[in-house]
Amino acid sequence: MTDVLPKTQIERMEDALQAMMKEALDATFFVDIFPEDADKFDDAMHGRIALLQYRGSTYAPTDGTGAATQLRTASFVIHLIYNATAAGGSRPVKDIENLRLELQGQEILGGDIDLVRDGLIDQKAARRTYILELRLAVPVVVQHRQPLAPLMTDFSRESA
């Protein structure tokens, strides 16, 4: 029997955001997590692509009392890529607006989604890329650590 590790907090956030992206965008989009090796990703196979990328986290300082939780603000970027092969479908600004309406004010893992910015970041003859940046502040719980057991040998009684 293979033990399956539970999903990390980031993976659970990605799953929830990806489901919301699929709800907001029409069926012509290929929706996925940003590939680990972007150079091997062949975007020419798809006319319209929506990729979710985790960009990192910042942490709020603790209050110094040995608190069991800390606030983590995770940053994500949704890349909307439109290739020349994209036929039909809605305009990019409509897709961004649909994403905004779907994501804004939603809660994931006890934290609200905050939208940061959106816009066109790259435009070439056969390809346009838009982004939607968002943040998600969620509490993170300190991992329980078993305290060390006391030594079983009384070295004061042991002779050398």
Summarize the SSE layout with pairings:
Blueprint: H1 9-24, E1 29-33, E2 48-59, E3 69-83, H2 92-103, E4 107-108, E5 111-124, E6 127-141
Parallel strand pairs: 1-2
Antiparallel strand pairs: 2-3, 3-6, 4-5, 5-6
Mean pLDDT, all residues: 86
Q: Name the helix and strand elements from N-terminus to C-terminus, one letter apiece.
A: HEEEHEEE
Low-confidence stretches: none
Shape: elongated
User: Based on the structure given, which CATH architecture of the domain at 25-37 and 54-141 is correct?
Assistant: 2-Layer Sandwich
How many E strands? 6
Task: Please identify the structural class as seen in this structure.
Answer: alpha+beta
- Rg, rounded, reads 23 Å
Care to describe what's here?
The chain has helices at residues 9-24, 92-103, and strands spanning 29-33, 48-59, 69-83, 107-108, 111-124, 127-141. It has 160 residues and is α+β, with helices and mostly antiparallel strands. The protein has a domain at 25-37 and 54-141: 2-Layer Sandwich (STM4215-like), CATH 3.30.2000. It has a six-stranded mixed beta sheet with strand order 1-2-3-6-5-4, covered by helices on one side. Helix 1 packs across helix 2.
